[in-house]
Amino acid sequence: MFLHNQKMMFTVRVNEPNPQFAKLLLEQFGGPNGELAAALRYFTQGWAESDAKRRDMLLDIATEELSHLEMVGQTIVQLIKGTPGAEVDEVEGGYLGDLLNGKHDKFVELSLNSSQLLLGGPGPRLTDSMGNPFTAAYVDTIGEPTADLRSNIAAEARAKLVYERLIKSSSDSSCRDTLNFLMTREIAHQKMFEAALDAIAHNFPPGRLQGSPEFAHAYFNDSDSGARATDGFELAKSGPWEFKLHEAKEVGTEPPPLKPRPKLASRPSEANKATSGREST
């Protein structure tokens, strides 16, 4: 059961309206690395999780992601409509009046060209910054904790980087404070998922089957010959992995080409039918 608590995790404020940045921020509302995708990803994992501790953690983080979605949505609304102080001003003399009088060319252009303002009005739409609608394909749960936790870590890393780029793109100090809070929570979630993965005794490789031993540590050198042909191998063999360098020809050969299918006339039974048909006419 969900209850709406009007006290948010972090106070959301913006200093001035900026429809252009609101459009960019949609990336974290309805985009592949956004808060809705994260919430749905962790809910689907948590509901199917048999381990009580992992289930509790996943559902806690999923619920927090919904609160982050609310924060992003509220930020977008304020960027479109302006700060609360600006909204209580009279239309005349405020930025809305300037917009109606054609003084804010940037806002007029964005209002005409942005599907966010045209179709969504003052509210955020479930799209990314390019207008692509949200899709369940963003939720990549596969039902195996050792794989899903690694995917979660990568997803939080991508979301952190998007927030980082948004912070660098914004000159609004209040908006940057909100984005910094959200970015920091992505780092915290990465740590939680790392800890949960580390708590699984045998977490590699994902799944149950171990694979063929002769290929588990084979490095196939598929680079062209030259001074740097084995640079990738030098990187991969570092640490405890002990990879062995292989050439592709050492393992197998290319299968022979398939025989062409015979034409209809080459089948004796069909050929006889064709001949008898001509004789009868």
Describe this protein with a few key phrases.
single chain; mainly alpha; Ferritin; two-stranded parallel ribbon; 13 helices; 2 strands
Task: Please tell me about this protein's structure.
- The chain has two domains: 180 residues, Up-down Bundle (Ferritin), CATH 1.20.1260; 38 residues, no CATH class.
- Helix 9 runs antiparallel to helix 10.
- The longest helix is centred in the N-terminal third of the chain and has 30 residues.
- The termini are far apart.
- It contains 13 helices and two strands, in the order αααααααααααβαβα.
- It is 55% helix and 2% strand.
- It is extended and about 80 Å long.
- The relative contact order is 0.12.
- It has 281 residues and is mainly α.
- A two-stranded parallel sheet has the order 1-2.
- Helix 12 links the parallel strand 1 and strand 2.
Short description:
By secondary structure, the protein is mainly α. It contains 13 helices and two strands. Residues 83-92 and 108-114 have low confidence and may be disordered.
- Strand adjacency order, main sheet: 1-2
Order of helices and strands: HHHHHHHHHHHEHEH
Share of helix among residues?
40-55%
Using the CA coordinates, give the radius of gyration: 29 Å
Shape: extended
Find the CATH topology of the largest domain: Ferritin
Largest sheet: 2 strands, parallel
Under the CATH scheme, the architecture of the largest domain is Up-down Bundle
Classified in CATH, the superfamily of the largest domain is Ferritin, core subunit, four-helix bundle
Strand fraction equals: under 5%
Judged by helices, strands and strand pairing, the structural class is mainly alpha
**Rounded average pLDDT:** 82
What is the domain total for the residues?
A: 2
Q: How many H/I helices?
A: 13
Give start-end ranges of low-pLDDT stretches: 83-92, 108-114
- Identify the CATH class of the largest domain: Mainly Alpha
Number of strands: 2
